[in-house]
Amino acid sequence: MYIFTNPNPDNKRTGDCFVRAIAIITDSSWERAYVELCLKGLVMSELPNGNAVWSSYLQSIGYKRDVIPNTCPDCYTIADFADDHSNGRYVVCTGTHVVAVVNGDILDAWDSSKEVPAYYFFKEE
């Protein structure tokens, strides 16, 4: 189920999807997530929006990466992923977007449920 969620303090939704998703899954503010990602980027000498930076950040707080099986590369959607993952907090990634899925709900600033995911991050409880 899609639920409109935008932790960006100015309600923006362009270019900060990785910050929004991380703020959501960590129950932190957008500002805190942004600063922590900037610090990680500074340490790595990269911009915070680089996949390597936010991936490294997620791994540093206990998240692991996994790939979506390639059984139906064009028909398995974020909505399908959410249905299959009704428990836990996930960061789901397409080629161009990052979204939070929490307990089967898609939390995003726009309805990305029809997008096709490529990989995701999860935390074992």
Description:
- It is a single chain.
- The chain has 125 residues and is α+β, with helices and mostly antiparallel strands.
- The protein has one domain: Alpha-Beta Complex (Cathepsin B, Chain A).
- The chain is built from 4 helices and 6 strands.
- A 6-stranded mixed sheet has the order 1-5-4-3-6-2, sandwiched between helices.
- A hairpin with a 2-residue loop joins strand 4 and strand 5.
- Helix 1 crosses helix 2 and helix 2 packs across helix 3 (51-60).
- The two termini are 23 Å apart.
- The model has no long low-confidence stretch (mean pLDDT 95).
Query: Total strand count, please?
Result: 6
- CATH top level label: Alpha Beta
Average of pLDDT = 95
Distance between the termini: 23 Å
Radius of gyration: 14 Å
Helix-strand layout with pairing:
Layout: E1 2-4, H1 17-25, H2 30-44, H3 51-60, E2 64-67, H4 78-84, E3 89-93, E4 98-102, E5 105-108, E6 119-122
Helix pairs in contact: 1-2, 2-3
Structural features:
Cathepsin B, Chain A, 4 helices, 33% helix, 20% strand, globular, 6-stranded mixed beta sheet, alpha+beta, 125 residues
In short:
With 125 residues, this protein is an alpha+beta fold. It has four helices and six strands. It has a six-stranded mixed sheet with strand order 1-5-4-3-6-2, with helices on both faces.
